[in-house]
């Protein structure tokens, strides 16, 4: 009875599953499988796999966009167009302020004083609107060791070098884009950074309310939700009270500025990137765990893929020995695993990779994780089957190895 039970368990592969589980568990527990992905080693290049995957999926999602989406109810963009006069810009900001928005983000800077009369008009307006207006500034000189910026660049009325113009208690938010200062696509944002060990908040975060982000850690990155939005865009001569009252308003240059960035939507102005960041924050689009962070899922995926690879050998053995289909067996043995793993990869990527086509739950680095799991499965299968073949040649291990399906295939 005991020998019959052992025979049945070995026939259905219980020994193999248990052995593979012992091999898979420590690997999944202690090793980041995503590092097995070859594209992981290209991540220092501007065209890294995560950026391309994110961009491509959003391009697919937005391909048939016809502009008929529901109007965004929380955001309004005000395009300053070709206005360059600081006095006119001050008047524009003042007019928007008087229309009772929730907050105003001014997405351009005034680096240095120009003309006394126009600068005075701007400073007076800044003092008036500072309770709900946030001005952009730039963080500079990032230090990797301290994970902090060392310097910053401000508008002249917040620059200590111009004390005669200095405005106290004006709120700012950094406007840096996460493209590492290169021409690569902007697909991530941060909410909090550090400058000289002091936490500072981004322009979108200040607009929504910095108190919402006190628990966020500096320099953490989140994927921007580029699900296309139909955001209201006004010009200085078409300001609408109903489209500004109780809205978050971003003021900047939409068309005539060099402040443009590559994105999954093409080249877009910085103020629109900020709009998508506000959308990402407000719809709770966060970066969730990658599949390799889910231990049970990783071990299960590894086991399934390894067993499928071994069962392929069983099927080939059946065709070659029992049915004498040698040519067919060779084709299946050479082609089937690649096709099957390709299908599994597509299914897993769809299920566990970047959930960019949903309003919530964006998974980061999913593609890298899936590639790593597939490669790990192939490596473990080769090691395991080679080990069975090698150990079966020794009398002391022959009895144990005989419980393996692969032993039976190899020794027929």
Taking the alpha carbons of the first and last residues, their distance comes to 25 Å
Overall domain count = 2
Strand count = 15
Cα radius of gyration in angstroms: 30 Å
Domain CHASE2: 49-309
Organism: Pseudoprevotella muciniphila
Transmembrane segments: 12-33, 299-319, 331-349, 369-391
Protein name: CHASE2 domain-containing protein
How would you describe the overall organization of this protein?
The protein has two domains: 2-56 and 289-410, no CATH class; 65-283, no CATH class. The chain is 44% helix and 17% strand. The protein has 13 helices and 15 strands. It has helices at residues 2-11, 14-30, 49-61, 86-97, 116-129, 203-208, 241-244, 270-282, 295-322, 326-352, 366-391, 395-401, 405-410, and strands at residues 71-79, 103-106, 133-143, 148-153, 171-174, 188-189, 192-195, 198-201, 222-223, 230-234, 248-252, 260-263, 266-269, 287-288, 362-363. The longest helix has 28 residues, at 295-322. It starts with a helix and ends with a helix. 35% of the residues are buried.
Helix/strand layout:
Layout: H1 2-11, H2 14-30, H3 49-61, E1 71-79, H4 86-97, E2 103-106, H5 116-129, E3 133-143, E4 148-153, E5 171-174, E6 188-189, E7 192-195, E8 198-201, H6 203-208, E9 222-223, E10 230-234, H7 241-244, E11 248-252, E12 260-263, E13 266-269, H8 270-282, E14 287-288, H9 295-322, H10 326-352, E15 362-363, H11 366-391, H12 395-401, H13 405-410
Helix pairs in contact: 2-9, 4-5, 9-10, 9-11, 10-11
